[in-house]
Records
---
Amino acid sequence: MQLTSPRLRASLLAAASLGLVAAALPPPTPLGIGDPLFPHLGNPGYDVLSYDLSLTYKDNRTPLDAVTRIDARALTALDRINLDFTHGTVASAEVNGQPAAFESVGEDLVLTPESPVAPHTPLRIAVRHTSDPRGAADGGWVPTADGLAMANQADAAHRVFPCNDHPADKAYFTFRITAPEGLTAVANGVAGALPVRTAAGPTTWTYRTLHPMATELAQVSIGESAVLHRTGPHGLPLRDVVPAADRARLEPWLKKTHGHIAWMEERVGRYPFENYGVLIAQAQTGFELETQTLSLFESGLFAGDGYPEWYVEAVMVHELAHQWFGDSVTPRTWSDLWLNEGHATWYEALYADHLGKYSLERRMREAYERSDQWRASGGPPAAPKPAAPGQKIGLFRPVVYDGSALVLYALRQEIGAAAFDRIQRRWVTEHRDGVAGTADFVRLASQEAGRDMEPFLKPWLYGKTTPPMPGHPEWGGAKSV
């Protein structure tokens, strides 16, 4: 058969070329950056600068049609590019504008470009794929009563879109979400354009972040939602996303955010992002999540039965505190999780103390009594044990919450409140929009204390048993309970 179409000839020649390149390379394998807890998470060889995600939603039974565009920079020569991606079907891929061969290996999507990518050059990737909201509840899309939300922590963003799914590689995001008539789509950041509506048809919503973000903090909400705007301290835009039918009932809770932000700013400095708000989803998740600028809460927390008001407020402050500790300053590895959860728990406990409902000292003493048991079952704060296979949420154990807040309490007891407060402020200022790890925190603590704090902090962070608490000889030794 004679090929008469130039476009068809070019397409077949490109496919043949890709086949020859792939044949010359060894079989693709999953890669990772060697995270102690998630060794196959993240990928070497490039740095992502930005993501542009286009998602078309129909209903919770149908995979979303999606296009993920990635702007990156190659750090080394790349014959192949590994992306983290699973739970979706890939239709096509391009690297620097040219078709690329693709293959799924483990939880990696491996792209083979037509020609190797040179080091220190731009890397532009486009993947057309689906994003499946169905399946096991192992993170990623969270079905709600009226649509979807996202919960990507710790390793589930790649169940939604192809990415370099490790918090050490932060990037800017643009979201373009198309949803049927009657539904509202919201994402992290600020609206990038007015919603584009078609007559009696779907609407496309656009959002973009003004600060880099870890993939695990991405948030997209689609549902029958009301988006409520107000102003926070020093003119900070506040934006809440709630079920439209519940907006009046939830208003007393939403009004508290202004005061929560002012309280946090008194302790650690200005809020670090472009806006803030809460996303209240009609779902039973069993957790709340600090997705950047738009914290996810399950609606049952605000149902008015079972939880005292002071407790709900303290939980709201916990997720707000994460915007500084975990979102703006992101952990270098997942073993540094204590820096996220320990700090958020610290301010949660401090706020409950501020309300006069649950004293900080009482909570820390109770944590001290349980600390050895927590370390035995989950590992020490800065070296947590991996979660069991298929139970990644198991990483979030008591030792990374109250057990890690206890480390901060011990540090304050040792160096005094003034030096401790300086550490907190410097930490979120000097590492803003960046990544940092345990060694960075120990170094900063030493600078503010005026002495090497590693001999003091190392047993608290890595010891199998809990050291004596400074200033509290009456606490005795920590004991298993």
---
Amino acid sequence: MINNIVDFFKNLPAKQCTKCGSYIEEQHECYNHTCDECTDIKDL
């Protein structure tokens, strides 16, 4: 059982890109699974 939700999110491991394996520099609970370099969506 989770005692403190803040501790739960602080203890999540850093996310890694599923394509190249580099660590993603953003919140761990986000939905992205690829880093900015490997993402197919480009800024206009």
